[in-house]
Write a structure and sequence with these properties.
mainly alpha, 3 domains, 14 helices, 0% strand
């Protein structure tokens, strides 16, 4: 009976997945939304039956994807299945929402890597060349506009060199960009799955208040090590230097989240409106060059000196 329930529910969720996959492919209006929706059937199934039945469901999904446009549906199925199963199994194992999010992010990172490798091999898409083409087009357009403004040749050369350096730095941070994309997809798909599970499974899953978000203290040492390599490394083109740059950038973004979380904690502690930290987030997004590093420093201080514990004890 139990095995029959596994199969029946798996078949139903597999049908939902196929429908979402087809909508994502052929309905442009919801294609973007589809990236967040297609992992949901895997998350729901894995949250109930763990990883073994979920892998069977993923295998069936891969076989079905071959019936449509496999060069598109197959990598999408792998992407959704890996991330979805990682999140679902974490829910099944009763991990915290943030631990679940971390596992889902890892699954989506592997899924995106598979998508890039698959499309590069079977569709002959050279992403390095494509990115370089986009960069060259952007540089040409920008320099053309600046020439029309009437800048001198020396100024134009300096601006072009600065832009080329910035684009080069962005290319070196592609691993971080992949992780950030995976984090966003993981967060949204996990939140959507919580809504589905709460409605259909009789359980209550939700993210805790953002003010409780806190990174492990040990991560600050990784940040310091990466920072030292970035500052004092001799060869900026070496694999170690590029790895350190990516670790430094990624942990820096996480520290900013820690800083925003502290703002919500402080507003709650002082019984202030949530509008204040929300306004701070909006201003940071609008003026990142000014406020990003300020929030980063707040996050580092909060994590390194356990500022929340100190303020909580002081408030008593």
């Amino acid at each position: 009976m139990k095995q029959s329930k596994h199969i029946t529910e798996g078949a139903m969720l597999l049908a939902v997945f196929v429908i979402l996959l087809l909508f994502t492919m052929f309905v442009p209006v919801i294609s973007f939304v589809g990236f967040f929706l297609i992992p949901v059937p895997f998350i729901v199934y894995a949250s109930r039956y763990s990883w073994k039945p979920s892998l069977v469901m993923l295998g069936a999904a891969l076989l079905l994807s071959l019936l449509f446009v496999p060069v598109v549906t197959l990598p999408l199925s792998v992407f959704a299945g890996l991330g979805g199963i990682m999140i679902g199994v974490a829910i099944h194992d009763k991990l915290t929402p943030y631990e679940t999010w971390a596992r889902g992010t890892l699954g989506y990172v592997f899924g995106l890597l598979f998508v890039f490798l698959f499309t590069q091999y079977f569709l002959n898409i050279n992403y390095s060349q494509e990115l370089q083409f986009v960069i060259d087009e952007s540089l040409e357009t920008t320099m053309g506009l600046l020439q029309n403004v009437g800048l001198e040749n020396q100024q134009l050369d300096e601006i072009q060199q600065l832009m080329e350096d910035n684009f080069s730095n962005v290319l070196k941070l592609i691993p971080v960009i992949l992780v950030v994309i995976s984090m966003v997809i993981g967060l949204v798909s996990q939140w959507l799955s919580y809504k589905v599970i709460n409605r259909t499974g009789g359980k209550v899953h939700q993210f805790p208040p953002f003010r409780t978000f806190k990174l492990p203290t040990s991560i600050i040492w990784l940040y310091v090590i990466a920072l030292l390599i970035v500052w004092f490394g001799t060869d900026s083109e070496s694999a170690i230097a590029m790895g350190a740059n990516n670790v430094y950038a990624l942990i820096g973004l996480l520290m900013v989240l820690q800083g925003f979380s502290f703002m919500f904690f402080f507003a709650h502690l002082k019984k202030k409106s949530k509008a204040l930290p929300i306004t701070a987030i909006i201003l940071t997004v609008l003026f990142p060059m000014v406020l990003f590093y300020l929030v980063l420093i707040i996050g580092i201080i909060d994590l390194g000196f356990d500022l929340r514990k100190y303020l909580s004890e002081k408030e008593k």
